[in-house]
Fold each of these.
Amino acid sequence: DNEFHSKMIRTGKVKLLSADTDLRPKYQLVDSLKYDALVCPECGYASLSRFFKFMMPAQAKLIRENISKNFSGLPKTGSTYTYDDAILRHQLALANAIVKKAKNSEKAYTCLKISWLYRGQIEQLEAEQRADLAEKIQTCRQQENAYYKQAYEGFIDAIASENFPICGMDEHTVNYLVASMAYKLGHMDVASKLVSAILVSRTAGRTVKDRAYDLKEQIIEKLHE
């Protein structure tokens, strides 16, 4: 029952440059992924912006009892979020999702966003080309992989138990995302199966089919190494 302000990226202020194979967006000047977790500074309720407004009374009770009672605030931030700031806020969003017994898709999507933040932090640290950052980069890489695996398993469960759209994505986009994640994690059988389903579908759009075809080429290349 408190109003609060949260840092956001103004619409149209950042230009999308490209996307990784697994759909992680890369923007000019700033990584807007840092600003997707909304956190109440009073009670500790946190969620990705997409899910923030959806709360059942029973879930609010769980958060009050398990999050708010132990919440003592977040560290102060500057005018922009560092990757450490953003990761902490997203981890709190994940803790809330677990406590309120959110859908598998919400937990998976939050894990995916955290893994992408670690990937962004790795890119930033590597760009500095400093030998003393090697250990931090290695730690970030381990965290990226750990959250990525959790995200993958969560999306597999979501596909089996939830109706589409999932996290605002239609069936073909989710199948492509999971296929891409499966490829990165070495699950070539899952990746191949999902890619094939997209390529033979009559309802999949041209963009997702093009992405699926490119991923199919990568899978074939990997299998022949």
Amino acid sequence: MDIEDTRQLLDAVGSFAGERIASCAARPEHPMDITQVEQLGLEAGELGLLAQSTAEAGISIWEHVEDEHAMAFNLGALRHIAGASTGLALAWHRQALARAVAVEMGWTLDSGQLRRAHLIPTGHYGLARISLASWLATGRASPEDHSLLADWLGRNDHATQMYAPSNWRSLIWPVWQRDRISWQHIERSALTVDMGKPQHGLDELRGFTIASRAGATQTADLDADASRSLYIRLLKMEFLGLLAIGAGALDRGQKLARDYATIRKQGGKLIICHPAVQQMLSDIDIALGQADMTLRALARPLAELDLGEIAACRATLSPLLCQAANQVMQVHGGIGYMRDAGPEKLLRDLNMLRLLSGGTREIHLFLAGWKGVLPC
């Protein structure tokens, strides 16, 4: 790929997102139903945005991660999709990550299996404090670290939360065995699954509480170094994807705020003429400017990126995006709190993204472990 290839591909994704996805997500008070989600997934596969199998190579999300132009495409595509639907972007991001792990493990999944496969990137809580990062950075784990990691990825002992389209049929997740992370590709029928309502945000998806049944499936192992390397790459892609999706959601929010400010009048003049509104719009612009610079800086071959650098960017940028989403709501005044207006859902979606995969509060301890800060 070169710059022109990337531009043309992203133009095509932008058109697809603006015409097809946005039309299905046009009413924020009525989330897309599973029929619409399935149809859009089929169209994304035909477009090449989502891979059709693990055997055939193409140009789809997270299929090529060691080419800077492909990385720009990966981040840009997720941002375009999130600009139309945050929940759908997250679902397709996790589907693409499931394929990436399956390819690495040598598993064969056809198009039907891939469309309904999902990935859970972390354990049942946080990022295992500093223990996970310490093991990833050094390959060594103390007895206390082993105990924590075994508990954190104890799929039989603890239920795990997942947000996904209701039609998923299998998932891929990491488990801790002996001294390393292993992987399971497990069918829904082999799991204990409780489906709940959508949570605080991401209304297009359902919330699931999932636990594995003892002896229900076998794990696939890599050697210790390969195990660490795969999980580091996975976390890099997960954090990058969440940043790109958050930026795309705020792209939509910026448009909502500016469009409203140019038609709503107060005191006989458009509210965009009021300094308070101008300041709120500037806050949104500043957050998007930071997102633009961050994503451009991170659009490099995955091997060149440091996991700690990406985690630190997420810890910095995610709260900024949430604050900007709140400003989108404030620009709208009272109507911004109404479900049919759009800003209310935007804020809930960005709050949910901020909490996923450890959230931004656990990242500080993760960074301490990654940088070699030892526990007392």
